[in-house]
Amino acid sequence: MSFCLGLTGSIGMGKSTTARMFKSAGCAIWDADQAVHRLYEKYGAAVAPIAAALPEAITDNTVDRRKLRDLITRDSTVLVQLETIVHPLVQADRKTFRDQAPAEVLVFDIPLLFETGAEIEMDAVACVHVSAERQKERVLARGTMTEVQFQKILEKQMPISEKLTRSEFHIETDTLDHAQKQVEDILTQIRKRISHA
């Protein structure tokens, strides 16, 4: 039986970098965003049900993310429809990974872990965090979104203070060395727990 660790945080807090640290330490990683990409790619599991509900979002047997974004912007009910289709498929993908991954510690990189109720599948949750100033600096430095878009994303996500309250482990990503040390400490605690189980 593997130990399932949920890894969450808000945009720009260093979650992907932290997930890579867990991977380097021998953990198997399941990434929610990559799972959605697999579901949307040509003939992916989400293509047929999305084509049935939102045919204009499909191009060449692939979910066209740009068209999907436009549809969601125009009609707020589209997002609810989409989540009804995609969430069960993402959950099934996660279960397949959990059943097949050979590692002792499985890390589930899920930005909306608490928002989607996925924490009930985890043995523990680790939340990455950094100051609000640092977070904003990182996101805007990517050059992929405006400050207004960044604020919109933040409004959709649970406040980081609440995510931290609900998480057993906290990883401050102010520096790479500090984050690395915290990852190692968490794995030491988890491995102790596994050996005493």
Automatic annotation (TrEMBL):
Pfam families: CoaE (PF01121). One of its GO terms (cellular component) is cytoplasm. Catalyzes the phosphorylation of the 3'-hydroxyl group of dephosphocoenzyme A to form coenzyme A. ATP binds at residues 12-17. Belongs to the CoaE family. The keyword ATP-binding applies. Pathway: Cofactor biosynthesis; coenzyme A biosynthesis; CoA from (R)-pantothenate: step 5/5. It catalyses: 3'-dephospho-CoA + ATP = ADP + CoA + H(+). InterPro entries: Depp_CoAkinase (IPR001977), P-loop_NTPase (IPR027417). Keywords: ATP-binding, Coenzyme A biosynthesis, Cytoplasm, Kinase, Nucleotide-binding, Transferase. Its main location: cytoplasm. The keyword Zinc does not apply. GO terms for biological process: coenzyme A biosynthetic process. One of its GO terms (molecular function) is dephospho-CoA kinase activity. This is Dephospho-CoA kinase. It comes from Epibacterium ulvae. Its EC number is 2.7.1.24. It is found in: Cytoplasm. SUPFAM superfamilies: P-loop containing nucleoside triphosphate hydrolases.
